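User: For my dataset I need records formatted as: sequence, then structure tokens, nothing else. Please produce one.
Assistant:
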Amino acid sequence: MMSLPKAESNRNTETSSFMDIKRHAETLAVETISVVLGVILALAANAWHDDRAHAAQAHEAMTAIRNELAINDSVLHLKVVYHRAMQDSLSALLARTKTREVPGGQRAIENWSGLQPSQLLDDAWQTARATQAIQYVPYDVVVPLSRTYAMQQRITELNRAFFGVVYTPEFATGGVGALAAMDSYLQDLSSNEGRLVEQYDLELSQVDRFIGRAVRRPR
């Protein structure tokens, strides 16, 4: 049997080695692509799951806030009417009083049933902030919400400041100075309550639109 020339034998060996390396490289490339693709799909699945979880958190938080605002709106609609009527009555009473004290004191105010400050809730808003659920709500929705609760806080602080001085002998005896201070308080209170009622109406509509979008979001 004739043997192959040495040069041709070396070429065959090199060709065989090259083919082995090529097959190994192709196998390694397929395995690498499979691993990378698997990682990408896993990351995408995690992101999709996180998005759904965040959307659910935002929807739950906004639903609670919506219910809270609706309760506050209902309360304030009644209170603002009462406070405006009381302020009108008190202004008229002071205008016709010529003495240092109003006979009967606060009870001389028509339809007087106490000051009845509005008890406005903010538990849902504070919870959404504390749990960071609010960060999953769009910025253009959060800003007016923050403004609404800031308006509530101003009313709370106004009530707190007035009630800090209302229980004095001058108020009890119907001193004109004390009742004039009450009149000023009621003017500020009624003005702030009226603006907040308007803000509630706007905010409830916006929150309803957000909740509607969240409900219709593709699953």
